[in-house]
Known about the structure:
This protein is of the alpha/beta class. 43% of the residues lie in helices and 25% in strands. The protein contains 8 helices and 7 strands. The chain has helices at 2-10, 14-28, 44-52, 65-74, 110-123, 141-157, 162-169, 181-190, and strands at 33-38, 55-62, 80-84, 96-102, 124-135, 195-202, 205-211. Helix 6 runs antiparallel to helix 7. It starts with a helix and ends with a strand.
Amino acid sequence: xxxNTKIKQTLPYYDEFYKQVIxxxxxxxxxxxxxxxVGCGTGKMGSVAFENVALEKFVFSDCSEKxxxxxxERFDFENTEFVVCDAKELDYVNEFDVITAIQxxxxxxxxxxxxxxxxxxxxxxxxxxFISFENFAPFTDLGKSIYLERWKRYQLEQGKSLEECNKxxxxxxxxxxxxxxxxxxxxxxxxxxxIVEILWLSNMQVGIWxxx
Length: 212
């Protein structure tokens, strides 16, 4: 799909995100799990989950009707559910063993991000596992300029035009709103997660997990 090709041209180690998620889920769960994927897109997380994990139920959630239509066509199984919904409007309580949000939370401002995290927390069973991957903010202005330049170089190497690369870099702080690693951890703790850890880190992307 062109959609997934563009993502790989933009995000270094994109496939690694999903490998890390699966390994962590397998470490926590040996039996079938109930899993909610927020911001599911075309179903990359679902595809990897169905190939590697026993699933009692898998819920695809996205605010885009177009994306939900795509995943319905790909994953119309008895143990799937499809929800057109903004992350802040999820309405589940104590239902899931695993919730994932891959490249979702950094599109929200501070208020919306906290509201979404509270919804994830509510939707998890006790001791449920939440995993997110997202862009993060470097601690300093120098760090930011260096990381953004590296990111632009990566995209150029993947075949994007200089104009495309510059447009993407200019979105920082305007269309997506990264926060620092320490701010990410503190926010999750403030939302109730009793355990918060870094799963994976490279360039300007981080994987974070928390336990309810």
